[in-house]
Design brief:
The protein has 223 residues and is an alpha/beta fold. It has helices spanning 46-53, 76-86, 102-112, 119-128, 144-157, 174-190, 202-205; strands spanning 2-13, 20-31, 35-39, 61-66, 69-70, 87-91, 162-166, 194-199, 210-215, 218-222. It has one domain (2-222): Rossmann fold, CATH 3.40.50.300. The protein has 7 helices and 10 strands. The strands form 2 sheets. The protein has a 6-stranded mixed beta sheet, with helices on both faces. The chain has a 4-stranded antiparallel beta sheet with strand order 2-1-4-5, covered by helices on one side. β9 (210-215) and β10 form a beta hairpin. The relative contact order is 0.21. The model has no long low-confidence stretch (mean pLDDT 93).
């Protein structure tokens, strides 16, 4: 079952001599439960692609379908709600709320949506990521790797259709990076979570099920 699809996705900045085609007709499909890595150098368009997949920016043209829904057919407020319910994000900079403890950070998006967390499911995630003894800690009392585990737990807790990871190991040392990637792979398998990760790191990308390479805004190879 296809969970994520783009059709002729384009993003153009500027015009005339200053025109930049950040995305130039991108067509991809991601199936339920797949772990896909998008690899590219700086300026290749991979970050722009992730922003489009997550509805964080609107394209110049083309379509993004998430769980069968054309996300850019939604008004801004509708898109915000859809994004909160259907798309999980893991960023390089963690983006945890410093005044909330670990558990409060994990369930925050669910509570913002006016819902109650599925405690059994959240506890499974917490145990899988080894955070049981850190639930009352504030983010500044955690290591970088632990903070990224919290960010992963927060992204998974709302049971999103897809999880988007933006250079999730970019701020971590090599050993911690391997640990975090191992956990991403474990959680994607255990919870049948569809995941798209962008990275410039070839070694990290090899842990995905499939690799897409992007150059000058175009997908050039499909793993």
């Amino acid at each position: 079952m296809t969970i994520l699809e783009t059709r002729d996705l384009r993003k153009i900045y500027g015009a005339g001599e200053t025109e930049v085609r950040a995305l130039d007709g991108v067509n991809i499909r991601v199936e339920q439960g797949e772990f896909v890595a998008v690899v590219g150098t700086s300026g290749s368009g991979k970050s722009t692609l992730l922003h489009m997949l997550g509805g964080l920016d609107r394209p110049t043209g083309g379509t993004v379908l998430v769980d069968g829904k054309d996300i850019f057919s939604l008004r801004d407020e509708e898109l915000t709600i859809f994004r909160r319910r259907k798309i999980g994000f893991v960023f390089q900079s963690y983006n945890l709320v410093p005044v909330l403890n670990v558990y409060e950070n994990i369930v925050l998006p669910i509570q913002l949506d006016g819902e109650k967390p599925d405690r059994d499911y959240v506890n499974q995630i917490i145990q899988t990521l080894g955070l049981e003894r850190k639930l009352r800690n504030l983010p500044n009392n955690l290591s970088g790797g632990q903070q990224q585990r919290v960010a992963i737990a927060r992204a998974l807790a709302s049971k999103p259709a897809i999880l988007l990871a933006d250079e999730p190991t970019g701020n971590l040392d090599s050993r911690t990076s391997q640990d975090v990637m191992g956990l991403l792979k474990v959680t994607s398998r255990k919870f049948s979570q569809t995941m798209v990760m962008i990275t410039h790191n070839e070694e990290i990308a090899q842990m995905a099920d499939r690799i897409l390479r992007i150059e000058d805004g175009c997908i050039v190879t499909r793993g």
